[in-house]
Structures are given as C-alpha cells and as structure tokens.
Amino acid sequence: MSREARLDRLFDFLKRSPTPWHAVAAMAERLEEAGYRRLSESLPWQLTPGERVYVTRNDSSIVAAQLPRGELESLRMIGAHTDSPGLRLKPQAAQQSAGWLQLGVEVYGGALLAPWFDRDLGLAGRVHLRHADGHLEGVLIDVEEPVAIIPSLAIHLDREANNGRAFNAQTQMAPVFLQGGEGADLERLLRDWLEAQHGIRDVEILDFELGFHDLQPPSRVGVNGELIASARLDNLLSCFIGLEALLESDGSQGALLVANDHEEVGSASACGAQGPFLGDVLRRINAQLGEAGDEGHIRLVQASRMISCDNAHALHPNFPDKHDAAHGPALNGGPVIKVNANQRYATNSATGALFRDLCREAGVPVQTFVTRADMACGSTIGPITATEIGVPTLDVGVPQWAMHSVRETAGSADVEHLTRALIAFVNRRELP
C-alpha cells in the first residue's frame, strides 16, 4: 500500500468528517466495504469465530471487532476519539446586531479561539425530524458552502489586538450569517438543505446538533510535502490510522478498534470512554465466544492490551522552551510514547516496552514525550479506559503542532509510521 494512496484516503476521510457523526458514518462505510457486519445494541447478537463486526452508539462512537478464528483468549485493542474542539450552535441561535443575523455559538472543548476568525465556515451536524407518517429520523447534513464568517475587528479600532487580548465567546464570536435577516428562519434554511442533500420534504424539524467547520481542505505543505495541514487532525488522524491498521491486518488475531465521542469534554457520557460502551461490547463478545461469567471476562481483559492513540505535542521551532529539553518529539520522527508519572497518560514500562518492540518489528522510529515539570499535562481516553475496563494500556500518538486550532499540522511520514506499528500490533501472535 503506497504512502501517497494512504494520504489520499486520509484527506478524503477528513473532508467527509466535519463532525463525529460524519466520521463514524465514514468509518462504518469503509468497514462494510471490507466485509464487516453491522450489529445493533438493542437486538440479540449471534457471533461466529473469524467474523468481523461493528456497532455504533449515538451514531458518534464506534467499536469494530475482528473476532479470532480460534478460541477467544485476548484482543489487541486500539482506541481513539471522534470529536474535536469547535464551535457548536446554540438551540436558539438566531440573534440580530447592526443589521446582521448572527448565530450564537457555544465553545466545545478547549478550542484555540483566535484561528477561527476570518475563516470561510460551513455548517454540519445532525437533525432529528418527524415525517408525515409520524416516524422520527436523524439525518446528517453538511453545508459545504461558506455560509458564515467571524470577522476580526480592524487593528485601527483595537490597537492592543496584538498584545494578548482575550476573546469573549459570548459577545465577540457569533458568526455573521445573513445581512438583514429580520424574521429569518433557521428552520426554513435547514429544510432547504435537507431537501437539497437528501431529497427530504414535508417534515417537522424537532431538534438538531450543529457546528461550524472550516472549509479549507486538507493539504500537503512544505517544499517536499513534509507536512499535512487540516482541521480535526486531533483526533481523526488516529481514527483513520487505527482503521487502516485493522483493515490491513492479516486477520489472524482477535482485534478491536474503539473510537469514542466526547473525549474533548471529559468522556463522561454514555458513548464516551468513561461510559459503558466498550465494556458492554466486550462482555457480549466474551459471553458468546469466550469463557462465560465474570471469571472469563476478567481473564480476557487482562490477557488483552490497549493502545490509546491521540496526537502528541511536537517540538515547535518558535517555542522550543515549551518542551522538556530531552523530550521534544519531531514531526516525521515516528510515533510518540506519552508518559506521565501522575497517570494523565496510561503508559507504564511494560506497555511502553511492548510498543517499542512493535516499532522495532515494523522498522519505524519511536519517540517519547513527557511534559515539563512546571507545566500541566493533558490527558486522553487511555487512563479513562484503563480505569473503566482494567485493560493494560499505553498512550501513543502522531506528533503535531497547533493542537486544538481550527487548522492543525502533522508530519506526512508519521501517518505511515504509526500505521505500520499498529499493523504489527494487530498481527502480534503473543502479547506479553
């Protein structure tokens, strides 16, 4: 599989995934093309050895499982998350100011706000509606036209703009949507978009979850194309790499990919890593193919391993002092093992050793990140999954710049590096 073809697939996935719901839909489509069967959580499961299945929850989280051909003794688990920081539309969003209709937003997650100004913004998410016959349906929409913008204030009117001015998301970041707009009806616009995108007419819109997204497409950057730049690399890049590894594995071992929603806001939801989704799936798989009961479930979990994939902070050439001098991961320098003594990352020496051996086997370089001792450390689904499930876990990721910006940057070679390491993991016959 060529590196260029993989990057082409990555860019297509990023463009098709402006929201977690779109990301899960795109992942499900690829899984079905590869022969995976969709399961429903509300129906009985009938599983057979060697089968490949997937299940979603809230349409924004997904678990895909490659069941072993022999006895179910262990699983090679890859974890990621589908959500990214951004601007979500408020339920009663319309507001008027200076002759313009604007749409009020709520900041989702720890977004860098400054890069959102002066961007061509589209609108995407899901809409729930009632058809004329009374049945309810959730539908995805993606307005890929520049329907809004958050204009900056001219420096002539704010001479302190370059001196660290803070942004007020309530009063200063409502996107400009429609000139005039007196009596404008957002529901009418949603109806128009539903008809244009899905041919849906004569419905009642009951509710929606929508957010703005930058319309600039993903791109290769640098004289030699060393970089990739896109929205939502954190953490759709890990979702994509995990999916690639699962689909390119040899199918000989039991393996599982979980991509949870709501990591950027703490993971505390029914479909988040702190919720029961993964645990429910593991219990149902074990009940049919493994040793029944609590004893069998615990043995399966403890014999398995989880690699939590979430991007890492690369050494920034303009801010080298933000890294510990001995732990500055380089773009295109290989996947990064993330370590924190206070368990903000789940890595320990045993799981770290496994990943280093996998990288040796795959012939890819490997790096380590530890935050400065005088700075706070972020976290991932890794420690949460380890806490909720009990599976031995480590945290790794592709190094990147501008994490939580509307447009982030990573190394083009690192996509291949981490994919190869994860393929080696999924194909691994014996887990330590």
From TrEMBL:
The keyword Zinc applies. Keywords: Aminopeptidase, Hydrolase, Metal-binding, Metalloprotease, Protease, Zinc. One of its GO terms (molecular function) is metallopeptidase activity. It is an enzyme of class 3 (hydrolase). It comes from the Bacteria. Coiled coil: none annotated. Its cofactor is Zn(2+). Its EC number is 3.4.11.-. GO terms for cellular component: cytoplasm. GO terms for biological process: proteolysis. InterPro entries: Peptidase_M18 (IPR001948), Peptidase_M18_dom2 (IPR023358). The keyword NADP does not apply. CDD domains: M18_DAP. Belongs to the peptidase M18 family. PANTHER family: ASPARTYL AMINOPEPTIDASE. This is M18 family aminopeptidase. It comes from Billgrantia gudaonensis.
